[in-house]
Protein: GntR family transcriptional regulator
Organism: Amycolatopsis thailandensis
Amino acid sequence: MRKGMSHSARSAMFAPLDQIGRAEAVTARLVDAITLGLLADSEQLPSEAELAAQFGVSTVTVREALVALRQQGLVETRRGRGGGSFVKTPANPSAASWRERLRTVSLSELRDVGDHYLAIAGAAAKLAAERSSPEDVERLELATEDIRTATGTEASRAERQFHLEVAAAAQSPRLTREEVQLQSERGGLLWLPLEPHGTRENAYAEHRAITAAIAQGDGELARKLTEEHILDAIDRLADVHLDLLAP
């Protein structure tokens, strides 16, 4: 699968924090960047001083955050020449663990998350059609191809990265951060690798249509197609959720 994300998505992730001096906030941002694929496996993080400047916090705060990341197994520190902090992408969880995660969520909560995600992703698609550059469209096309070739949990990650690329193409750092926050909380539930056989081909066709609408500058069509795509995902998850709860 293609590594890394667009510059806009990465810039939004490393934007200054609203609450200065909080190691927990820095840790949360970096955890999101790693688990959502904004930072690639084995990628070297910026220095402590550079991270502190980007987040608008002290180097002590950054150092505390890196300690927490090492404890979670998401970062490793190498000493000596060429050393520094390097990303360790977490292993993909099994289908069984995804099902257990879905089982613990109520149907009303799932619908609520879907409604919130629908509003964010729909707005992002419309703005992307109005503001995206040729480079943005090219990255969307590459992300769409990732969806065609990926399977299992990699397909789930590809789906999430596609929507991050759409948000980045909207040229709104706040909207991109909202997308990241949704995915890092309950929004990731929408793209769990639980789809029935044949759905992957449908998803590929849907993403091609969304990308084409953005490339053509048709904001209303891009929004409509994105909303339909997400509503389908909500309906599929609701069906799986009900099956899991059946006696």
Observations:
- The two ends are 39 Å apart (CA to CA).
- Residues 107 and 238 are 7 Å apart (CA to CA).
